[in-house]
Amino acid sequence: MEPLKLVLEGVGHRYPGSETETFSGVSVELVPGAKALLAGPVGAGKTTLLLRIAGLRKGPGRVLLGDGDPEDRSVIRARPGVGFLWQSPEDGLFLPGVLEDVALGPVNDGCATDAALDRARASLRDLGAEHLASRDVARLSRGEKQLVALAGLLAREPGLLLLDEPLSALDAGARRTVLALLAAHPATVLLATHSGFAALEEAGFVAAIALRPAREGRAGRSIAPAG
Length: 227
Hints:
Largest sheet: 6 strands, mixed
Low-confidence stretches: 217-227
Radius of gyration: 17 Å
CATH architecture: 3-Layer(aba) Sandwich
Structural class: alpha/beta
Mean pLDDT: 88
Distance between the termini: 19 Å
CATH topology: Rossmann fold
Strand order of the largest sheet: 5-6-7-3-8-9
Number of strands: 9
Number of helices: 7
Order of helices and strands: EEEHEHEHHHEHEHEE
Shape: globular
């Protein structure tokens, strides 16, 4: 799929029962293929904003994806263009075997089984994780699960990658491999993190959105457009 443009217009969010907004007034435009950072400390709402972009949460403001609005479409219709990596990799793993799990996304997108398995092998290889192909998911370390979950997203060939702390459990070598791959990937990438900004910027990522916890009395705000 071609890389997707992403536009946020005054996006905010408040959870039911909360007296304060998790964030508000987030506006930014990412051109197709942009590599952008969503920065903020723990509790600032980074995951919630990613869920809003993916169409999995409702709230004020507009989220424009490509030439459409995922908040005006079903999750199923929006899904093929978007790859969402959960902060806990277990949330994105569904089958017992690694290779089968990585191939699951392409199969669900309509890819033939053999072609999906080829994509899965290529995705694992690109991440330096081909040695995990025959392993059981339950026996993987957290870092290995993170690689497998990311491989499953890349195998789907999405136009937009929404990544929630994708490097948190990786060792230094795997982190370098993943960063280099993401920086060169054709998809638009929005990577949420609370640390490691220097390494990410050196890899070509640009600060796009900064969020602050509501308890600090400052709503989330866009600090610079990326792309």
